[in-house]
Structure formats: structure tokens, C-alpha cells
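Lecture 7, part B: from sequences to assemblies.

Below are the input chains for today's worked example.
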Amino acid sequence: MELQLELKSQASSRRLLPGPAKLMVNALMLLFTASCIIPLLWIGYSSLKTQAEFANNILSLPSAPQFGNYLEAIKITNMLQLSWNSARVTLLSVIGITAISFVTGYITARLDFKGKKAMIFYYLFGMLVPIHALLVPIYLLFKNFGLADEWYTLIIPYIAFNLSLPIMLVSSYVVGIPKEIEEAAAIDGLSFSGTMFRIIFPIAVPVLTTVAILQFFSCWNEFSFALVLLKDESLRTVPLGMSYFKSQHSTNYPQLMAGMVLSMLPVTLVYFTFSSRIIAGVMSGAVKG
Amino acid sequence: MGKALRPKGWVLLAYLLPGLIIYSFVVLVPIFSAFRYSFYSWTGGPKKTYIGIGNYLELLRDEVFWHSFLNNVLMTVYGLIGQVGLAFIFALLLMSKIVKLKGLHRTMSYFPSTLAPVIIAFLWMLIYNYNYGLLNAGLTKLGLGNLVQSWLDLTGPIVLLVSIPLSWQNIGFFTLLMLAGLSSINKEVLEVAELDGATGVRKAWYVIIPLAKPTLVVASLLCIANNMRGFEHIYAMTGGGPGNASSVMALYAYQTSFLRFRYGYGSALAIAIIALTMLMILLSTLALKRGENQKGGAY
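Predicted structure of the full complex, as C-alpha cells:
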């Protein structure tokens, strides 16, 4: 691939920079991209080695793939339970975030009402507030209300802390929808709610999909709230379970790596399936933010 | 929107309330309750002793806290260089006609941003590992075997060492943010600049940087906010060690509350962290605004 790239960039030489300089720039970018990926590939193939083989040469490829590492990692971490907990919490949080940000984003885009500016500012504030500073009071609050250590516990902070950006994304998307559509719907006798859910919702599906995917990452990967709000071992999420796996089995590196690969698998699959949409979504969020 | 479509007040409220309630419960209420708890000496039991500003007086003299704060500031500086700065250069390169395989660069460099901070921390612990680390293996291969060491046990450069994984994970995000900002710059302005003979570095310095200032400001503020609240990477990578060398404010607050059971003092720390973070963001906003009036760069 590198060779092909070099040939291509030489072929398209332009007047601005001499060929060698272009090669240098391209080599630099490739190096940067490679540095983002090589450590992960290393984890990937090392997870298939025996412990002795890994200790002997940490860079070599596995001579015979050891899938047993994966079975062990699944058993030790209770990965199926962890994944189920993560999936349940993530799915419900993402549905909640998408629903609330759709309704709130639509209303802020289309209606003027008292306190609207204050509300938008209030939601933006959530992006700047150092949430990890609030772990103590949040823990005490959840304990007082009897909301800690339940299967639904994490859904509450996951929704709350992920509302700011989605509301902005939805709101700026709705601003781009022609108002005539809603006016026509009103003339046909559709109520406000009817217009919102039956006319605007289908139009907003692309932005809501982007919101859902981005918040999937955020919820699946979350660690701090899980650490503080869950004591019950059977409720642990994947990142939390991995942190205990690490401290208990830190000497068997191939097994640890197998566990890491397993815990990365869902986000990796989602990312490479939707990467162009995700990147477009982040970029549009960046412009609007 | 026409009057016909305006919903009744209570309908509007019913739609907005669920979001506001859940958001307030987790964001606003804890800030107030932390403020209240911060005036008590309290270990979590039934006995709560009012001690006025005692916790805050202790906080002012608490060397570990201020050391942690300085670490946060240092990490922010490293972040501004390693995330915002490098991302800006990469975005400029990705905007130019020279670079090939742009899609590949964008897709691969953003990938680490989608991984859990805990996993990123494990990955880099393995990279820094003395016996089995990529870093030491690489140094040996390069004939620099005398540099081989147990990296995360170094007290001196520890903040830099733990900042590298943070930059590694976030640089793809900031590159996308910069690309978005740069691509919204009017193409005609750039063409005019090129006609006037501004190319390459000169074009970047005199034309693109001033025009990209809003993006650079937003990126810098995000970077500051991220680094001031940093917790997960440090928790998983070093736990604040060796000693307290790599401790950060949020981690210290966590340890104070949940390992030493000092909920009152932990709450005072929470209030201090929020106040200091807001102060940092305010000061840097002012500084960036002032820099805007004086000269080109946002740095």
C-alpha cells in the first residue's frame, strides 16, 4: 500500500512542492495513521499467543493461534454477563437520549417561549461542568433515593450527561427543514404533537441515527459512574469488569489482551460499519458546537 | 411558525420536563448538595458535624490537592500542544492537495476516540511495561537499549507520560473538529490568497490561521475542559502514582471520598474543582479573545 501511494503521489506531482517534499508529507501522515492503529494490531495478534511465546518475543506473530485465551478471558471476566449488562444499559440510555434530544431539539428550533435561552445555556453548561468532581454528591444522592446498585441505575446519569450535544445537533438539523411542511400539516388539521412525530420525526431520522451511534460509544465506554454507583458484581459493565480483570490477572498478558479485544469488539464493529456517517456527524457537530 | 401549530403551555412543559428533570437531578442537584455537605465533617455515618469553612481552610493548605491541580494544568498544556496543536497541523495537511488516502487517515485516526478510556489505559500500560512493552522493545531494536526502563515508575516525567495516551486517543477527534472548521472557510478567500502568491506555510500562517481562529478557540476550550476533569485514564493507568506524582483533582476527590470516607471534605474538593475549572475556562476565554484583537494566532 505504501509503495502504491508513493507512485501515485509522484505521478500527480504539481508545481507547489517538489516530489521528495510531497513524499515526506505523505510519509508523515502515514506514520501518524499507523501509530493510531499499530498498537491495536499488536494487542490483536498478541492475544493469540501462549504466555511463554509472548514473553520470549513480544513482537513476533503467533506460531499457532491460541483461541483458548479468549475462552479463558470470557470465563474469568464473566464477559457474557458484562456484555449483557452493558448492552441493556446502553440501549435504554441511547433510546432515552435520542427521544429527549429529539423533542427538546425540535421545540427549541421551532418555538419561542419564556426561558428558552436560559434552557439552552443550562444544557450547554453540562458540557463544561467537570462531572467527575460530582461523583461524591451523585453517589450520595443516588443512595438517599435508593437508586444506587439497581439494574437501571446507570441509565439515569448516562442520559443526563449526554443530552447537551444531541440537543444542539437535532436543533440545528430541524432549523434546516422548510417550515412550509409543518404549515401544510397544520392546514390539514394535524396537531403540534402529530406534526412533530408523524411529519418531522421521519425527516429527522438521519440526525437521530448519528446521535444514537455517537451516544452508543459514550455509554458503552463509560467507567466512572459504573465504578461509583455499582457495588453488586452481577451488575458490572464491560469497562468496569475489565478493570477488575486487570488487577486480578495482570501477569497473563495474552489473556488480558484477549479480554481487551473482546471488550473493544462491539465498538469496533459499529465504528467500521458506520465510520463515514460517524465522521460526518462529528464534523457537523463540531461546526455547530 | 403559525399560531395554529403553537401547542398549549402545559403540552410544551410536558415535553420539556422529562429532560430537564433527569438532567437537573444529575447535574444541578449534586452541585447544591456538594455545597451543603462541604460545610460538614462527615464520614458517611449518621453523625454529621458542622464545621463551617473548616474544609475549605484545610483545602487551601492541602499540598496534594494543589499538586493535583498543577498536574491538571500541566496536562492541559500538553493537551493543547499534543491534541489541538498537532491536530491543526494534520488538518492543514489533510486539507492540502498533496496528501493522498485522506479517507484512510480520517477513519483510522478517529478510531481510538471510540474506545473506552479504561482500555486505552491498559493498552498504554502494556506499551510502557518494563519487560513486555512496545516502547522498550522498540528502543532495544533501535540500539537505544540504555534508555529502557519502567516508564510508569518515573516520578519526573510521569505527567507527560500519562498525557501521551490522552493525546493519542483524542487527536483524531480534534483533527475532525479542525477539518470541519477549515472546510467552512470560504474557498474564494483562499484562491485570492494564492493568486497573491501566498502558498504553503505562508498561506497557512497569514490566511488560514486567522480565519480558523473560532475553531481553534472552541477546540482549546474543549481541550481545557477535558483535561481539567480528567479521571479515568489516570485512575486505570497509575492510580495517581508513583506516590501522588500523577494525581489529578478528580482522582484525589474520588480517593478522599471513597477510599478514606471523608465525604464532607470530598464535597469541598468537588466545589473547588468546579470553581477552578470554570475559572480556567473563563480566563482562557478572556485570553483568547484578547489575543484575537492583538495579533493573528490563537496561541
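Note for the exam: Residues 24 and 30 of chain B are 9 Å apart (CA to CA). Keep this in mind when comparing with the next example.
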